[in-house]
Specification:
By secondary structure, the protein is α+β, with helices and mostly antiparallel strands. It has 9 helices and 11 strands. The structure holds zinc ion (ZN) (2 copies).
Length: 248
């Protein structure tokens, strides 16, 4: 007797398997994923494509039915397999794909270093920034500034020294008075926002907030600079600075 119906179940995680390898480069650590048992994978995908139910046969009992089931847990293997056998994607997979596409194509602006980035490349160490506020090192009251305010002030003074040469010398003396509390680096106009800390681009955890933030607005900058302003560690450092100058 010839069987008209057959079914085979493949456990792809065990039969095929996935190998992950890490490699170091100047851009950081990258992980690549590959299939362990290539020949079995090819065999299973081709058997899967052959799986069919003959539609032409009118007699149901004579119909040849070849069923195939694949069980996959590994996300990489699942994606590769469903793509290779043209399996219909679930809504969740489509959404994940779209999300991944967004993460690797939408250019965002980082409020911390003011540079551009895409979320999929956003790794630890990608962003260089100062996380402290600025103070006037030559002022008795060590007046606190938000970095963008300090830069505004320096720009304004540059203009004044150009239009009013009498003030040039005095302004020149004060040019380097603004320091970042985090590392005591001097605030310089045009030097960019690269700083003493290395981390990830972006401020805040919400992904949505990030995607909406493709254009840096004043509000975002202010939010970040307020966080720098309120940093308890640096405020302590600032208080110590006052103490150290008390008797000068
Ligand atoms: Zn710094
Ligand atoms: Zn950044």
């Amino acid at each position: 007797m010839e069987y008209k119906r057959s079914m085979i179940v493949y456990d792809l995680d065990s039969l095929v398997g996935v190998n992950q390898s890490e490699s170091e480069s100047s851009m950081g650590t990258s992980t690549s994923t590959s299939i362990v048992n290539q020949s079995i994978y090819i065999y299973v995908t081709s058997r899967f494509r052959e799986a069919a139910i003959e539609a032409s046969c009118t007699d149901k009992r004579q119909k040849n039915e070849r069923w195939a089931i694949a069980v996959v847990r590994d996300p990489f293997l699942l994606k590769k397999f469903t793509t290779d056998v043209d399996f219909t994607f679930t809504n969740e997979q489509i959404e994940q794909d779209e999300e991944e596409h967004r993460r690797s194509t939408i250019t965002l602006v980082c409020v911390k270093c003011r540079d551009l980035y895409v979320e999929s490349d956003n790794k630890m160490g990608s962003c260089n920034y100062h996380d402290g506020f600025v103070y006037d090192n030559l002022a008795r009251d060590l007046k606190k500034y938000k970095p963008s305010r300090a830069i505004e002030e320096l720009n304004r003074e540059e203009f004044i020294s150009y239009t009013n040469p009498k003030k040039k010398e005095e302004i020149e003396k004060g040019k380097t008075r603004f320091k970042y509390i985090c590392c005591y680096a001097t605030v310089q106009v045009g030097a960019g926002f690269n700083g003493c800390k290395k981390g990830k681009h972006g401020f805040g955890n919400s992904r949505k907030k990030n995607f909406a933030g493709q254009i840096l607005d004043k509000q975002m900058i202010d939010k970040w600079e307020t966080a720098c302003d309120e940093n308890p560690e640096y405020n302590q450092q600032y208080a110590d600075l006052f103490d150290s100058r008390k008797n000068i």
